[in-house]
Amino acid sequence: MNRGLTVLLLLSLSTACATHSKPIASNPIRSIAVIPATNPRWYSFENAAPPIGYPLQFWVNKLDSNSKAKRFNDELDSQSNRLGTDFTDEVVTALRGYGFTVELLKDVPRPVNDPDNVDYDRISTDADAILQISLSEVGLYSSHMSRNYIPRVNASGKLFVKGQDDNLYDEDICYGVDAKNGKNWAILPDTKFAYPSFEEVMTHADEIRSSFAIGALEIAKRMAEQISDSAKYRNAAFPKQAQ
Q: Measured between alpha carbons, how far is 143 from 149 in angstroms, rounded to an integer?
């Protein structure tokens, strides 16, 4: 008898555990508060050519890349840098185009040395969800399989409801050298943005700035579309009168 009761009790507990689910917000996503992307503080520059030659060739290549990266950054920094600001504006505009009410959180407290490390508990907003966007890497890269320097613009977006564990959207999108054809997270660059030498890079600095701006714009449009799709998928769980 006791054994039978024990079995029934265990079955009831296992059933209850199996039906547990994380809580969802009581409202559909109609408004979004955006934590803006910051402008790049450093443009990456790397030549991954294999260290052919004498044993210390790897370190020679490394020092050479570091020196060129400094010159590359000095050249790009000679003009104002609004890449993160423009990227944010494009995301906000696109989301509004999809029908969302968007609030831009302009005064978010950020650590000086790690501005993307935001304390979400310190954010005050009435929006249904919060979106943090960032430019994770911007620069040029030449792989060991190519003789050209190709633009690299990588960005991330995370949409979440404050106080809940699950993200409604959490994706990285890559434009340029890291992109792979046919992937939702990838945007191939225009083939004209390819530079066979460091001298060509420095000669075409304005064009490279343009390639970064184009990459950020394309990512913003792709990201806003994906966020809209994610929100619509989630909102479908709510009765129509709640939407």
A: 8
